[in-house]
Backbone:
């Protein structure tokens, strides 16, 4: 997982913060599948993810319509339902418009 | 670390995605100190953080002025400089306006 190479703002970010239950039944496989599926959606720009206790996944999108379509994608809807049924203790989704970004990249590895 | 209890949108998110170098000199202490310091700034609303390889820290703020003031806070400026000098291989900061949020909380632990 690396830093997403997103285009010039404005674009949208979906910040998904979550705490897992202890139930793992096909969670990792489904999370992997959903990431692959998201990448194929119109308007997808990138994804970043990390978990240590708290999980944070930020996906980047061209516009609100792309986000809406991805939310309603059938396999994704099923995964969301499984999330509420067994995988997540709690979660919060935030839809945010990226107005500005800047970065840093080191010339050589240290 | 848990999901931040942010107020009703709109508010702002600073999404800081980073890849660390192998150099740890006082990184953890400084990160901890910066988190404590951020919490004391005017307009601070919450913070969420996770790292496994990629690090993602999302801090939430009332408005752009609060973000600007925090970016220019003197100890924070020094930490940012150390970040570019030794701690980070690369990073990206995205300033985003949270327009909508929704969540889920399980009644009982499973």
Residues:
């Amino acid at each position: 997982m690396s830093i997403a190479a997103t285009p010039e703002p404005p674009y949208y970010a979906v910040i998904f913060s979550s705490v897992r239950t202890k139930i793992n039944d096909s969670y990792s496989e489904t999370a992997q599948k959903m990431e692959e599926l998201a990448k194929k959606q119109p308007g997808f720009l990138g994804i970043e993810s990390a978990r240590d206790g708290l999980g944070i996944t930020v996906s980047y999108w061209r516009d609100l319509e792309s986000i809406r379509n991805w939310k309603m994608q059938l396999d994704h809807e099923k995964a969301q339902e499984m999330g509420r049924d067994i995988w997540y203790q709690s979660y919060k989704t935030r839809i945010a418009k990226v107005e500005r970004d800047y970065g840093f990249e080191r010339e050589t590895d240290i």
